[in-house]
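Margin note from the TA: students keep mixing up input and output lines. Inputs are the sequences; the output is the structure of the whole complex. Example:
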Amino acid sequence: MSTWIHHCGERDVKRPDRFFFEPLEQFSEGDRLELDSREAAHAQRVKRHGVGSEVELFDGHGRVARALIDAVSRRGELSLRIVELGRSPRPERRVWIATAVPKGDRMETMLDMLTQLGVFRLTPVVFARSAAQSGPGRQKRWRRVLVESCKQSRRGILPRLDEPRSLSEWLGEIGVAASGTRWLADPDGMSYERARADAEPGRRTEVLVVVGPEGGVTSAEKRDLIEFGFTPVALGDHVLRVETAAVAFAAALASVSEL
Amino acid sequence: MSTWIHHCGERDVKRPDRFFFEPLEQFSEGDRLELDSREAAHAQRVKRHGVGSEVELFDGHGRVARALIDAVSRRGELSLRIVELGRSPRPERRVWIATAVPKGDRMETMLDMLTQLGVFRLTPVVFARSAAQSGPGRQKRWRRVLVESCKQSRRGILPRLDEPRSLSEWLGEIGVAASGTRWLADPDGMSYERARADAEPGRRTEVLVVVGPEGGVTSAEKRDLIEFGFTPVALGDHVLRVETAAVAFAAALASVSEL
């Protein structure tokens, strides 16, 4: 297994399009596989691939493969032969964002951007001031956004996306003692720079950022979060919307290799 | 003229809602004014304000006012009396983003987020691989997004939004010699950290970031940009969409007080 994908010398060469195939784990070089109908349609109709095309496959768990399309059935099924298997590097720092669910499309925009920015784990949290969230199939649609965003941004490992839960449930799960730097996005908090400087050296490989709902966290929620080790931190001079705050913290963290 | 807005001690107190009124320059304390119909409708229908309510006004040029609603006409016009005038602080660093126009809603999402993140100036640029952009009224709609975003995020000064222009026109305008740090968002560029460390101390108060279109800048465009002093810089490990790159650079810059 090589990691050619991140070591190719010619960086200007257009890299092959990526498609999702899960899981790649039990496959070997030379094996054949068939893309699911959604990915096959994307490859043919949007990206105009046919027999002989070289593509990349990824399974969202870190395995990647270079593959050739060797047959197209009359019904549009795509059969591929694996030429080479590889692995995406695991990120050194793990950024975990627990956030209120913003309304409508803004949740999907946020998931898309957070995936591109390398966020490791996402937990939708219900706060006292969260707008009512409902609708079955959201989780499935959200996961689809993550897959599409990985394809486009060439991210090999899907972010982990949890089921929505209440703040108290979630705090109970993570506990007080767990490791990692813990921040609460808060326009009245300490500056991001100071928070970075204050982060304990032993707790810098995992950063957990909580973003409250539109109306802000209640003072009781803030008290609970502080008790669980969260430091209120402000990024920039203005009040940020839910999705902007989440994306801004993820981007600021992605811009540095160390806290 | 005071600057009470940024100096109030009680930070947990809910700050009054903000509405847009332009310009505030020639007004004094005690003067009366009338909100335009869009802002008046927002104040009454969405925010439920009536006679006696206290609100804040901002004109997008840095003037702010505390005002009381003292009359509502039968047709919904709102008359206000200015209680106190103030000024928003000017940002110390000026971030200027010149970017390809992403498709559809994504432009408006980008403008909204960049406003919250304090970007000083925005120039839509047409690149060789830009998708065709058309439609009158876009500029007006975009400006409306900036105003709404200022209202919500309590930003006092509107970002400057230029008319779209071609890359060569724009490079001609900014010239080779102008001051400021110049970066080109580029997944193959040097790391953001190194670029920050490399920025010349004398050129750190203005940062200019160029973000190319979906298909990337052409090698000729990249050559031109490098000739005009732009350093290719990568933020994070993945390929970022136009709007994500613009927002990520703005957020990373907003997270630090000095380059």
